[in-house]
């Protein structure tokens, strides 16, 4: 809303009480206040604001400062500085809590927001005002503002409500007329044209308001209601009077004549208006209407030229979409399909929601489909969205909900994308309740199902078409295809009955013959040789095209393929070969015969025929399949070399029906069966590198990883196994996870081992894999010194593997004994160790059990028996050179040390230092020798050994203790020296 009458009325409500009685004694504030009041009363707004600002600056805390903010805001409103005015009103409301002008300040803040274009805050503040100030005189002034805001925001129902309320509370005829005009506009914008007309006529009856705009807008409403003559009368008055709407009114008059097809009147007026500079913004519409008039009057070339010119001159015109549509239509008529497509594509790109766009797309797509240009049709149809029609165009939008998916479905069907076609055709059927429109969609949906072998769905859709349109254009074709679908679905009685109703003359000849062939094949497959023979005989009629005659002859041969008498079948095939020795159907008949032989377990005879097919008919589509089956037969006969050669041949010249990844996979296993593991690994590599999306990728990658491990490349194997796990193949991924754990175990990465093996602790992976993974998980926990968890898991694995001869049973026994020791259960550890020694007498790590026995016996102070056990470790052929042997020798020294037999201990420790190259135990043995000498008060010898540990093995645990013992020796030697002196 601009600064109209309503705003002027509001400004007239400004406070007039800004006066004061001079006090008896004048002072600074009162004098300045009086000056400001005088300037305000004289409406010298700029001077008043200067005085206000000076007062505020000089006396910010004065009792009059708060009210001054209000009057300052009023002066700023007069100067139309609405943003500053709003800030001043807000200051007033903050400083003065009780004042008669507070409601007016609240109103002014909302009004200033409105006048500065902030409609959101204006709406919020006006709504707060009308809710709280219904008894205030400015209430009636706020309602029209809310109506204008709602109208601007296109919330027409809300605008209508606000203007109705404003009309009821209007304090003056002028404001009533303004509210009525706002109401008329709200009704017009919401499409309530009849009610809008009534409101406009009420406005025209008012004398308090200028009615020029109302009369012009009423004329436009009458035009839209189809009352073109009435519109001309109203708009003529506007055009003949002084006002801003004269030229536009004349344009609407010309449009009214256009609508009643008074072409001369319309064209004459449009020609006059085309020279009017004030209508420059409407020049595109004038040119469009002129072009349409030329087209209507038969000036096609001239009209189209004008439309082309409009598109060039006014590329952003609202009439471009209609212009493009008529150019599309003209191009279709003249057969220029590419030009029509270009226009339709531009409509889609620039005007996706205009009504002209779906109309043009229908025309062009329909023509493309008619010409069987399915891909081109689809490109156009996919460029437009199903929702790309303005909601107000209800009829067009509703039709488009069916038409677009239907046309897309037909295009996809023609292009061979049957699954997508079926989705779209189903969506089209669901989009309309008009069964007449649904009928062709059901027929097309039947075709889609038919082409993908979904016989039940095909039969259902063809039957639905016949139910809706039993005598329709596609009725005979539907019956024909329905019979074929029923036959393939095993409903042969219904199929024969339906086929008998087909009128061949009304079917497309090729479709009839193709379907008859399919019926014959289905009958043959079902074992109904009598009907199959009749149908094949129908195809073999010499009047038919050659391809169907040959199919009929081949079919008649097929009927005899599974004859119990081999001679009968061979004779039938021979008859086919003699009739047409170059027939492409011969390989199919031979293939059929070979399949029969395979079913009868006559593999040798079948192999001979398959070899005949790919040898004598190498160009046949069936040759690769014959070669593949021959390779499989050879493989089953363990003739792996011959099988591999055929796989190689297929790989070098693959057919479209065969997957190269499958051939490489088969060749790989044939090579494995020959013992050629490196050559097989090359096939796994090819699958991994070239077929990442293959269903065989994970298995091939696993085999490849195994070969990499064999070749000593665990890093590459790990990368490949990680990829397998990421793909998540339920059959291969668990084994890949296990192998990753094995690799980690080989690298002593026990944390990684635990992570991998923990994932396999479930029966879903099979008991064997669960046991194996459980063992390695427990082993990883053992090496991570998580002894409690490891013990529980080893017990679980031992339970699962009990009674089975498994390679890790002896290791489990060892670990359980070791873990009992780690957990302080020494008696149990000894029991388990001795049981393991008896249970696994050939255990290679028997020395570990003997060491553990020694530890347990020593804990029971059975030192002699402990030394015997330790000696078994030292004497072990396998363990004698291991660190365990060094530990056992050290522990012998420990047993003597605990028995205080220091000389024997020194001898035992000395063997560790002399015979084993394990720094930790060398350092430990030297330290213990030093302790033996220290206890014997042989300080110098003890110091010598401690010095050697500290200097020679600084990285070991024992070096720190050696340093401490050196300090102790020093103190003891000093103490011993003092005592000796005293004794003397």
Considering the chains and any ligands shown, give keywords for the structure.
single chain; 984 residues; mainly alpha; 52 helices; disordered N terminus; disordered C terminus
Give your account of this protein's structure.
The protein has 984 residues and is an all-alpha fold. The protein is built from 52 helices and no strands. Helix 3 (45-58) runs antiparallel to helix 4 (65-78), helix 30 runs parallel beside helix 32 and helix 34 packs antiparallel against helix 35. The longest helix has 27 residues, at 957-983. The chain is flat.
Secondary structure elements and pairings:
Blueprint: H1 5-12, H2 28-41, H3 45-58, H4 65-78, H5 82-95, H6 102-115, H7 119-132, H8 139-152, H9 156-169, H10 173-189, H11 193-204, H12 212-224, H13 228-240, H14 246-259, H15 263-273, H16 283-296, H17 300-313, H18 320-334, H19 337-350, H20 356-370, H21 374-382, H22 394-415, H23 418-430, H24 435-451, H25 455-468, H26 475-488, H27 492-500, H28 509-525, H29 529-539, H30 546-559, H31 566-579, H32 586-599, H33 603-616, H34 622-636, H35 640-652, H36 660-673, H37 677-690, H38 697-710, H39 714-727, H40 733-746, H41 750-758, H42 767-783, H43 787-801, H44 809-822, H45 826-839, H46 846-859, H47 863-875, H48 883-898, H49 902-915, H50 919-935, H51 939-952, H52 957-983
Helix pairs in contact: 2-3, 3-4, 4-5, 5-6, 6-7, 7-8, 8-9, 8-10, 9-10, 10-11, 11-12, 12-13, 13-14, 14-15, 15-16, 16-17, 17-18, 18-19, 18-20, 19-20, 20-21, 20-22, 21-22, 22-23, 22-24, 23-24, 24-25, 25-26, 26-27, 26-28, 28-29, 28-30, 29-30, 30-31, 30-32, 31-32, 32-33, 33-34, 34-35, 35-36, ...
